[in-house]
UniProtKB/TrEMBL annotation:
GO terms for cellular component: membrane. It is found in: Membrane. Gene3D superfamilies: Periplasmic binding protein-like II. Keywords: Lipoprotein, Membrane, Palmitate, Signal. It is a lipid-anchor. Its main location: membrane. The lineage of its organism: Bacteria, Bacillati, Bacillota, Bacilli, Lactobacillales. InterPro entries: Lipoprotein_NlpA. It comes from Weissella soli. Belongs to the NlpA lipoprotein family. This is D-methionine transport system substrate-binding protein. It comes from the Bacteria. The keyword Signal applies.
Amino acid sequence: MSNLDQQHDARKKIYLSALALVTASAAINLSVVGIQQVHAASKTKTVVIGSVTSDADIWRHIAKSSVAKQAHLKIKVKEFTDGATLNLATAESKVDVNAFQSYGYFAAFNKAHPKEQLANIGLTYLEPMGIYSKKYTKLSQIPDGAKIAVAKDLADEARGLRLLQAAGLITLDKDFGDLDGLNKIKSNPHHFKFYEIDDTTGPRVIKDDSVAAVLMSNSISQSGGYNVLKDALFYEKVDADTKANINLLATAKKDANNKTFKKLVKLYHNKKIQKYIKKQYQGTKFEVKKPISYVSTAK
């Protein structure tokens, strides 16, 4: 064999050795990636969240977000049409967690359903109820004897009456509670006539010429094209009187300490998520980043 042939064979051996090393390295890398993917998949937990209206939209956004992926959570959103059905489904673990209700609603449900108990795993926001009117631009313009529409649902009616008291229009009994109603009005100096309605009809009732003002929750007023910060004559603030109106995440009582479910609270308060919520809902959902104990003194 000539020197030229020997050099050619040597170069060929070097090339084949290098190719073998590259192939082996690629195979190892692919194997490591595969193991990492399997490991990541095994860490990911699936959580089913039951919700209604705008809360469902928020959680659908969170489910698709990078922060949910980083938390190793796969979120599935199941939308309901009414809160009572959703709470029962949660108590029976047909959904893991629900996001839609205020602390007052939550407490009323637990009181009415001793065998289907829920646990509060974290506070999220206050969605302010407002006093709206098509006829007047100031509370002081509402005449004595005027007709005021309030929700007939006990929790929402109590909330509405507290708002009227905060606005200085009525006073309530000292022992007024989350499920109390018109019979607990202590003083009605303007002799208002209260008209009980289904909360969802608020945007229609406000157009009734016989009604001076309507109390509406934020989600309902938004559905009618209203912005509580711009269109309400008066609205709720985050303070001692509105503790019962703060929204929360609820789960079945047996899952009160579930660490995976509690991750949802941190997700909701993530800065990226809050930036989205503020922009999407024009600042009408007031973030409440407080411990669960904050609402324990709500009446």
